[in-house]
Amino acid sequence: MCKFADLSDRWVVVTGSSGGIGRAIAEEAARAGAHIILHGTRKPADVEACCDRIRQQGRQCWYEPCDFSQQDTWSPFLDRIWDRCGTVHGWVNNAGVDLLTGAESQWDYAAKLRALWEVDVAATVQLSKRVGERMRQTGQGVILNIGWDQADRGMEGDSAELFSIAKNAVMGFSRSLAVSLAPTVRVNCIAPGWIKTAWGASASAEWQQRVLRETPLKRWGTPEDIAKLARFLLSDDAAYITGQVINANGGAVR
């Protein structure tokens, strides 16, 4: 009997999978039967531990580091992956600059903007274009990008302004790339809302209250909530869905 959102024997790449949403997507895809390529530049021990857990499920998995802020690394990164597995069926662009809890949080506005443009926007765009062309040559594939539910309606503060610049670019690009690559390759974008990753776990009482106030389901989202949606979109059960930005935000409307 076929299972829902089956990814058996497919190769899925998840960038930015050292923790949070990326790690959850990788582990959920493995539970669906996929073999996984993990990517990350931070916390390599955590990435290797995730790899071990996936291998214990009987899946193939390896860790492929790459600094996306350096453009000359992108093509060799793709070549190493394709040389290793032959083809890729699903590609998730989750890598991004951590402006909230990483070292980048101490940078000035201009430095943060440059980093977001290099990693969140340029790398996502260029990797998607190159991956999409390789997928089209093999006659199949799914690209999944990560946006932000408040990017297109606005939120106060420097970090929100910066994320809006980057994520609106990714969301708009995803819609257009889907048209360019159709009908062979599907492209969608998940726009998470308040997800309890590292920042959410340590957020102040004021922020905890704000999240509940703005979310009709009255709870934080979890990385696993996003991962289950990603699993569906990567699978053939979503075969008629492309060019969509899908909010996963507990019903929030502001």
- The helix fraction, in percent, is 40-55%
Shape: globular
> Number of domains in the coordinates?
1
Given helix and strand content, the structural type is alpha/beta
CATH class categorisation: Alpha Beta
The H/E string reads EHEHEHEHEHEHHHE
User: Describe the biggest sheet?
Assistant: 7 strands, parallel
> What percent of residues are in strands?
5-15%
Computed CA radius of gyration, to the nearest angstrom = 17 Å
What is the CATH architecture annotation?
3-Layer(aba) Sandwich
- Poorly predicted runs of 5 or more residues: none
Q: What do we call the CATH topology?
A: Rossmann fold
Distance from first to last alpha carbon: 42 Å
Strand order of the largest sheet: 3-2-1-4-5-6-7
Whole-number mean pLDDT: 93
The CATH superfamily label reads NAD(P)-binding Rossmann-like Domain
Per DSSP, the total helix count is: 8
Number of E-type strands:
7
Task: Describe this structure in a few short sentences.
With 254 residues, this protein is of the alpha/beta class.
